[in-house]
Design brief:
alpha+beta, 8 strands, 30% strand, 2 domains, Alpha-Beta Plaits, eight-stranded mixed sheet
Length: 234
């Protein structure tokens, strides 16, 4: 009788450990889905007030041109279906090129590279990701039979990153580099990647550009900008 009780107790303890391990694994998975890996690992170790400075980040701001008006015509279910398709493809693209998705904002998508400490995800990877995003939206345009077009702003420079929030922590970024990338997007051209001069000088030996001429960015001086056209030949 005692042996049966001991065996039952050990079995319950084993099952309880299995359940706890599964719950921990699930929590780790959710944390890594919400935060960059380097931030998730630090939170797990008990680190608080996570704040970082990155001197060489590449920021991609994207926007689906005219999608707000389109969504009024196609209704909520179709709106969500189209955005889910496009953003899921964007997630695959940024992961493939070593970037991180920061967040979506309506029909906008923000990605960043050069902040993970890994060799992938630099300016050249971000440029390739941007061109792949343009192609993905062109594919979606044909698939859904809708007037879909993507506008992208790309800029290189320093950013600040850190974890904000307690109950639902997120890792966000701040700084002029993001603001300039956002303004490059809003002053860009449908179906093109609008780049800053800093991005041009970083990528000029690997990629081809069309000079767009000086443009005025709200809140900033008049700047020279370029439209990325593709990889350089040879």
């Amino acid at each position: 009788m005692v042996e049966l009780v001991v065996e039952a107790t050990l079995r319950q303890q084993f099952l309880a450990r299995q359940s706890l391990d599964a719950e921990r694994a699930r929590s780790d998975e959710l944390l890594r889905a919400a935060l960059p890996a380097h931030a998730a690992d630090r939170l797990k170790r008990g680190e608080q007030n996570i704040a970082d400075a990155f001197i060489d980040a590449t920021v991609l701001f994207t926007d689906l041109v005219g999608f707000t008006d389109l969504s009024k015509r196609i209704g909520p279910k179709e709106t969500v279906r189209v955005l889910d398709h496009i953003f899921s493809r964007f997630d695959e693209i940024v992961a493939e090129h070593g970037l991180d998705r920061v967040k979506t904002m309506g029909d906008g998508y923000l990605a960043i590279g050069g902040t993970s400490g890994e060799p992938r995800g630099g300016a050249e990877d971000a440029a390739k990701a941007a061109l792949d995003m343009i192609a993905a939206v062109e594919d979606a345009r044909a698939q859904f039979g809708m007037p879909l077009a993507l506008r992208i702003g790309l800029h290189v420079g320093p950013v600040i990153g850190g974890v904000v929030g307690d109950r639902r922590p997120t890792y966000d970024y701040w700084g002029d580099t993001l603001n300039i990338a956002s303004r490059l997007e809003s002053t860009g051209v449908a179906g093109r990647v609008h780049c800053s001069e800093a991005a041009f000088w970083r990528l000029g030996k690997t990629y081809r550009f069309d000079a767009r001429g000086p443009i005025e960015l709200e809140g900033y001086a008049t700047v020279q900008s370029y439209l990325l056209t593709g990889l350089a030949e040879g």
